[in-house]
Design goal:
Elements (H helix, E strand, L loop, with lengths): L5 E2 L10 E4 L4 E4 L5 E2 L1 H18 L7 H8 L4 E5 L6 E5 L2 E5 L6 E4 L11 E2 L6 H12 L12 H4 L3 E30 L2 E25 L6 H5 L10 E2 L10 E2 L5 H22 L6 E30 L2 E8 L5 E3 L5 H27 L1
Parallel strand pairs: 9-14
Antiparallel strand pairs: 1-8, 2-3, 3-4, 5-6, 7-8, 7-13, 9-12, 10-11, 10-14, 14-15, 15-16
Length: 363
């Protein structure tokens, strides 16, 4: 039933695996140090990728097949094109590595048809830079569990191309509210307050360009929004070659579902812009905001993110880095042992001070 094909990108000079190098912005062979531009990669592998894209698309499933896949554990076994070993991944994975020869493997059919991205932003933050940002983020935080900053934990810092929906269009935004102007003064022994009410109405037509929403149910929307924005001047037409050596996922959030989140963000931004035009009032009350959208356009993109996940006492903590701009965000655990020791030390110090003061007063 599954016709997904596995492909690799190999160096034309030594046949070793090629990967996109964030430091140089080129595709690099880490064996012979050869580098290639995206244009050269397209010239070398473009015709093959077109053929694989046409032949490797996942077939449309019947309703019974879809139900069976949903409850089958959503994992599949593919063969590594380099060594023939089995490559196991779930139904959302689009690229991975062979666990035996470590060859980057792209599951081409996973990115065919409706699941083929329109654009991609390559990684610009290197592994060394990501580690340095993690060190900066955790430096001086005494209450972190010791193993959170251990070498083994830092080695779990990994990059991932996250699926995103980007929506552009026009929004007609209207505000209706009661604006109040309040003036107070004192005369003699009396204080007077004069309140005037106004019927406030504002209308705007606003353009919004590529407002993002991540297309993965497994990744928290708020976590991804915390490392925005991405710089769209670095966007490139999608090519499977960028996935060589870097895991990627295909979307499991439909465009229409993502649009609801995007529209909410656009509505909040529109409300803020409308209120900026009504700043001459002491307050706005009974605010009503209406929005309607036109000329909606969607782009399916893969955007670069560094991830570090950590589980402490049954709770998951995440540290993420925007793989293009380097913006970081993290949720840090607190060591109960360290917190207890510090609390005990503070209590002991207070007790000693009280004892000494008591001795001076009553001794």
């Amino acid at each position: 039933m599954d016709s997904v094909q596995t492909v690799t990108y190999q160096c034309p000079n030594c046949n070793a695996p090629l990967e996109f190098d964030a430091h140089s912005g080129k595709f690099k062979c880490f064996y012979c140090d050869s580098t290639f531009t995206d244009k050269e990669i397209e010239d070398i592998f473009g015709k093959r990728d077109e053929k694989v894209d046409l032949e490797g698309a996942e077939p449309e499933l019947t309703e019974d097949q879809a139900i069976q896949e949903e409850f089958s554990g959503q994992s599949a076994l593919y063969s590594c094109p380099n060594c023939g070993a089995g490559v196991i991944c779930d139904s959302l994975t689009s690229s991975t590595r062979c666990h035996f020869c470590h060859t980057p493997v792209v599951l081409s059919g996973r990115l065919s048809g409706e699941f083929k991205p329109d654009v991609l932003i390559p990684f610009a933050v290197t592994k060394e830079q990501a580690r340095a940002k993690f060190d900066d983020f955790t430096r001086g935080k005494f209450f972190l569990p010791k193993d959170f900053t251990s070498e083994a934990q830092i080695n779990n810092l990994s990059r991932l191309y996250v699926p995103y929906w980007l929506k552009s269009g026009l929004v007609d935004a209207r505000l209706k509210a009661i604006g109040k102007k309040v003036r107070s003064w004192t005369s003699g022994n009396y204080r007077y307050t004069n309140t005037k009410e106004y019927d406030v109405q504002r209308e705007m037509e606003l353009a919004f360009i590529r407002v993002p929403c991540d297309g993965s149910k497994r990744i928290d929307d708020g976590l991804m929004e915390s490392i925005e924005p991405f710089n769209y001047t670095g966007i490139k037409p999608f090519s499977m070659s960028y996935l060589s050596g870097c895991p990627a996922e295909k979307y499991d959030v439909k465009k229409e579902e993502a649009a609801q989140r995007i529209d909410q963000r656009v509505r909040e931004a529109s409300e803020a812009e409308l209120k900026k035009t009504a700043v001459n009032y002491s307050s706005l009350e009974s605010v009503q905001i209406n929005t309607s959208y036109r000329n909606a356009q969607y782009v399916y993109a893969l955007l670069p993110v560094w991830f570090l996940n950590y589980q402490y006492k049954g709770k998951d903590y995440s540290f993420v880095i925007n793989g293009q701009t380097g913006l970081t965000f993290g949720q840090l655990p607190v060591s109960g042992l360290k917190l207890g020791l510090v609390s005990a030390a503070i209590c002991l110090a207070v007790a000693i001070v009280v004892f000494l003061i008591g001795g001076m007063l009553f001794g």
